[in-house]
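for the recovery benchmark. C-alpha cells below, seq after
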C-alpha cells in the first residue's frame, strides 16, 4: 500500500523559509498528480500547489511568487520550497498524491 509521509515543518519567523518534503512510499508507478494542501485551525483544507509528472504546476494565488513546488518522479517525492513566509501561512501542510490516502501532515508555524 502506498503511504504519504510529510516532513520539514517547523516554527519560523516571518520572512523566513522552509522546505517541505513528501514521499509516496511503496508506489510502483509514477503518480500523475502530486501536491500540497494546508489547513489552518477552524478553516477548510485548501490547495496550495500541485504538479504533474510532466512538470505542469498550479499555485494558490496567496503563495504565487513565494512558494515553489517540485518533484522527483523516480522517487515519487514532492517538495515545497516556501520563501518569505507570512503568519497567515501557519497551518498543517498535507501532501497530496492522486489516488492515495492523506498522510498525517506537518505543522508549519510562522511567527510575526
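predicted aa per position
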Amino acid at each position: 500500500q502506498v503511504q504519504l509521509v510529510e516532513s520539514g515543518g517547523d516554527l519560523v519567523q516571518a520572512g523566513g523559509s522552509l522546505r517541505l518534503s513528501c514521499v509516496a512510499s511503496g508506489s510502483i508507478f509514477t503518480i500523475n498528480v502530486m501536491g500540497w494542501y494546508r489547513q489552518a485551525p477552524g478553516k477548510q483544507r485548501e490547495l496550495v500547489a500541485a504538479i504533474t509528472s510532466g512538470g505542469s504546476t498550479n499555485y494558490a494565488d496567496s503563495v504565487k511568487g513565494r512558494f515553489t513546488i517540485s518533484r522527483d518522479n523516480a522517487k515519487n517525492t514532492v517538495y515545497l520550497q516556501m520563501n518569505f513566509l507570512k503568519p497567515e501561512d501557519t497551518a498543517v501542510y498535507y501532501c497530496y498524491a492522486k489516488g492515495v490516502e492523506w498522510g498525517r501532515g506537518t505543522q508549519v508555524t510562522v511567527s510575526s
